[in-house]
């Protein structure tokens, strides 16, 4: 059973106050609430995930729907916990003060909704992109958090916390928007080039335009396949095709594909430390990851800047990297791999998420990054040289 701790004082926090009430105080607050029997009955019949929290953000009551969502049967298992702790948010364990006190919590929609509702004394709703880690497995959830102040009793403040899982809605929305954005851009280029070809049909040397038309059509096909595969990956039914590969050839092909992207002519692509390393993986997925990273680097770069791509051997792994001069803000760094998060506006935000999903879940590697003034931003893809086939 997950237990609440005694009252904590003077613990360092990066964001929300770390102090919490003791088990005895929590029990007393719950007793005060249960004096209103009719309220408890209505609360449990609500068809939404609802909990009541105190000023210290600790749960003092939760309805049946909330407990079912957490897959627990007894309310006592979460009394005194904060929302992130109850949901097993991976960031709630990074700081001694737990939920709401790590540097990642600065960007958390849940704790910020609670703090804002406490300060404004009104209902506040925020989206929360939560990483949940249970039994070594990490999954992403998008939640709609709504917090409303309740009338204080005996000078104690309580707040109604409503949690709605909007993961499916957000995923469908993002996939649809991204799909139509990319496909319409490429098909638009195809249409414009066809118009150009019609205008130039009487001139000699039409092989070059036809070649360019072929490249655009190929991009359109690849983008449709990429979105299809991303949906399959999200649904856990993407198949991998493992084959023998060479890192230098992968890099060359990734660069060639990147050079036909929009605005690619405005930057320099530089290959550095290109080692020839034989390894086993899915060529399509490896290229897709590197091309996504190159696309992100291109969007972050300015005219004349250099984008670098390289690889080297690290023990039993091959390590690729993509570097651009831009430095990401701390806020962006803390959310970079979250699904639906994007610096490009609404309806975007699956680039780095898909990179991590494909690289780690399907290629059995790791994806990481660093971003600082001395180096700019560098994304790393680390893959096993010998692909670990599942045991039958």
Can you describe this structure in just a few lines?
It holds the Pfam family HATPase_c. With 392 residues, the chain is α+β, with helices and mostly antiparallel strands.
Secondary-structure topology with pairs:
Layout: H1 23-34, H2 37-45, E1 49-54, E2 59-62, H3 64-69, H4 83-86, H5 109-120, E3 124-134, E4 137-153, E5 156-165, H6 167-199, H7 207-234, E6 242-246, H8 247-258, E7 268-274, E8 278-282, H9 283-300, E9 306-314, E10 317-324, H10 330-335, H11 351-362, E11 366-372, E12 376-384
Parallel strand pairs: 7-9
Antiparallel strand pairs: 1-2, 1-5, 3-4, 4-5, 6-8, 9-10, 10-12, 11-12
Determine the fraction of residues in helical runs and give it as a percent range: 25-40%
Number of helices: 11
- Here the CATH topology of the largest domain equals Beta-Lactamase
CATH class of the largest domain: Alpha Beta
Strand content: 25-35%
Largest sheet, order of strands side by side?
Answer: 2-1-5-4-3
First-residue to last-residue Cα separation? 35 Å
Structural class, from helix and strand content?
A: alpha+beta
H and E order: HHEEHHHEEEHHEHEEHEEHHEE
Number of strands: 12
Can you tell me the number of structural domains? 3
CATH architecture of the largest domain: 2-Layer Sandwich
What is the mean pLDDT? 86
What coarse outline follows from CA principal-axis ratios?
elongated
Unreliable sequence segments = 1-6
User: Which sheet architecture does the biggest sheet show?
Assistant: 5 strands, antiparallel
Q: Specify Rg, calculated over alpha carbons.
A: 25 Å
């Amino acid at each position: 059973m997950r237990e609440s701790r005694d009252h904590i004082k003077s613990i360092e926090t990066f964001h929300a106050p770390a102090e919490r009430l003791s088990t005895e105080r929590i029990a007393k607050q719950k007793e005060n609430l249960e004096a209103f029997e009719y309220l408890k009955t209505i609360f449990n019949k609500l068809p939404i995930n609802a909990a009541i929290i105190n000023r210290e953000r600790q749960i003092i009551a939760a309805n049946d729907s909330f407990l079912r969502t957490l897959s627990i049967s007894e309310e006592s298992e979460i009394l005194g916990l904060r929302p992130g702790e109850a949901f097993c948010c991976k960031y709630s364990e990074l700081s001694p003060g737990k939920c709401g006190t790590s540097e990642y919590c600065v960007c958390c929609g849940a704790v910020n909704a609670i703090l804002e509702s406490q300060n404004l004394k009104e209902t506040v709703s925020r989206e929360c992109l939560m990483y949940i880690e249970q039994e070594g497995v990490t999954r992403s959830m998008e939640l709609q958090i709504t917090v409303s102040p309740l009338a204080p009793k005996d000078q104690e403040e309580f707040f109604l916390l409503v949690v709605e899982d909007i993961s499916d809605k957000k995923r469908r929305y993002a996939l649809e928007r991204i799909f139509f954005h990319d496909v319409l851009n490429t098909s638009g280029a195809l249409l414009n080039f066809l118009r150009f070809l019609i205008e130039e049909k009487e001139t000699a040397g039409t092989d070059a335009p036809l070649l360019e038309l072929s490249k655009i059509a190929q991009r359109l096909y690849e983008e449709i396949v990429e979105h299809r595969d991303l949906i399959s990956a999200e649904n856990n039914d993407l198949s991998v095709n493992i084959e023998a590969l060479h890192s230098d050839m992968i890099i060359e092909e990734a660069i060639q594909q990147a050079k036909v992207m929009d605005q690619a002519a405005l930057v320099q692509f530089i290959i550095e430390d290109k080692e020839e390393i034989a390894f086993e993986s899915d060529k399509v997925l490896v290229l897709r990851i590197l091309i996504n990273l190159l696309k992100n680097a291109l969007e972050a770069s300015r005219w004349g800047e250099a984008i670098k791509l390289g690889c080297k051997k690290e023990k039993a792994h091959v390590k690729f990297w993509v570097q651009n001069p831009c430095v990401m803000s701390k806020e962006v760094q803390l959310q970079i791999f979250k699904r639906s998060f994007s610096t490009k506006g609404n309806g975007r935000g699956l680039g780095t998420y898909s990179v991590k999903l494909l690289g780690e879940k399907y290629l059995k590697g790791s994806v990481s990054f660093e971003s600082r003034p001395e180096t700019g931003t560098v994304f790393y893809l680390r893959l096993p040289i010998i692909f670990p086939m599942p045991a039958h």
